[in-house]
Amino acid sequence: MLQVPETTGTFRWTQTQSGPALVSDALAPFARHLFTTRPWMLGTSITGDRAEGWREVAAAVDVDPGDLVRVHQVHGASVVVVRRRGAGEGAPGLPDADILMTDDPAVALAIQTADCVPILLADRKTGAVAAAHAGWRGLAARVPTVAVDMLAREFGSRPEDLVVAVGPSISAAKYEVDVDVRARFEQSGFSTEHIDRWFYDGERPAHWYFEGSQCARDQLEVAGVPPTHIHLAHLCTATHGDVLCSYRRDGKACGRMAAVIRRAAAVAPALP
Questions:
Q1: What does pTM read for this prediction?
Q2: Are strands 99-102 and 129-134 parallel, antiparallel or unpaired?
Q3: pLDDT per residue as tens digits for the range 8-56
Q4: Which domains does the chain have, with CATH numbers?
């Protein structure tokens, strides 16, 4: 029997027909959502039937495959705003972007990861939701900040009304990067204090261990999301090989995990 790692905070495992999935009880009142795992079709291999894998993800949140909206992820900070249903799998091609958002409960938003940081956001007042993919390039491009700012611009969301779940990603202990990576953050204008929090000295000269989930959390806080509204899974993709997909661990043969979110049909009463 598959042994899932212990969860912390608001996160818990739920068993689906496809395999275990991770959810956050803090996000659940405002959006149906989940983070899939390696046993799901998408997690088996990138050479499998990916269309069937995405149909499996759509079914898990009770939408038709054509209403599961995805993008072609390019490790940037571009945003796709979904105003109405029908822009998903059936559309010819996928737009280049790494952030999706909508206030339409008829659609679900999905991104895929295999070490990068998956971020799901929901507005407790307006009901708008967003899904964001952030590898180190996306974090250097301020994906978490852009997601918060664009929710405000497109749907009138206030940062203090957002609830955010940050799913499994590779931990600093398993993710050594070189000077070019750190330099990108310095060039992006992040403070020395923040950079020193995200990069730990590596075992080789001019190398560091990078903590992407902490980087995402700090950016969300700077953007105005209350610390108590930000929930981190603290599960390392490279450590838990039976359950989570990791490109750094398995290379091109690794599968992918999906982070999917769908607005609740009626917005739950906002918590204090």
A1: 0.95
A2: antiparallel
A3: 999 999 999 999 999 999 999 999 999 999 999 999 866 556 899 999 9
A4: 11-169+223-263 (3.60.140.10)
